[in-house]
Amino acid sequence: MKSWSNYKETYRSEADIFDCVRAGDFKALVTLLSQQVDLDIDAKNHRGYSPLMLAVYHGEADCAEALLRCGADVNSTDAMNNTVLMAAAFKGKLEILQLLIQFGADTGRKNKSNMDTRDWALMFGREQALAYLNGLSPQVDQGSKVKSLLRFINLSLMMLKSRFKPG
């Protein structure tokens, strides 16, 4: 590069979908989802992670739900065939695990090491996730359905608001 101005041109000026979910920037994600009709919500980054996988890894339930409601692949995998559900089991985020299963995540898929979601929960000592996956009823926040409904209403309102922005 010959000059600083040439170098600056190589930088992105706006956050992309990966930046939004990694940072948990729900508002920016909703704006992207509602304004970029050609946005590939199942795109993979340089490490093979989809935006949904990153949202799950970072514990961003709102971002994960927004992506799922917009049609993200609930069974997307990384380069090692680890599923989004395996990521939730690894992190032990029961709320996100339940959300993924609600959207049809396949608990029986195996990665390249022949491990499934239960194996991930067991290996990392995620007892509530393992109990849930085994059909038991771990102690879950009783308000989770209410929280889910409120998140959905909030997402819907934000998407409507960004579509009808004057300008």
UniProtKB/TrEMBL annotation:
Domain of life (superkingdom): Bacteria
Key word Repeat present: yes
One Pfam family it belongs to: Ank_2
Keyword vocabulary terms for this entry: ANK repeat, Repeat
Residue stretches of each ANK repeat: 47-79, 80-112
Record keyword rRNA processing present: no
SUPFAM superfamilies linked: Ankyrin repeat (SSF48403)
PANTHER family for this protein: ANK_REP_REGION DOMAIN-CONTAINING PROTEIN (PTHR24201)
Protein name: Uncharacterized protein
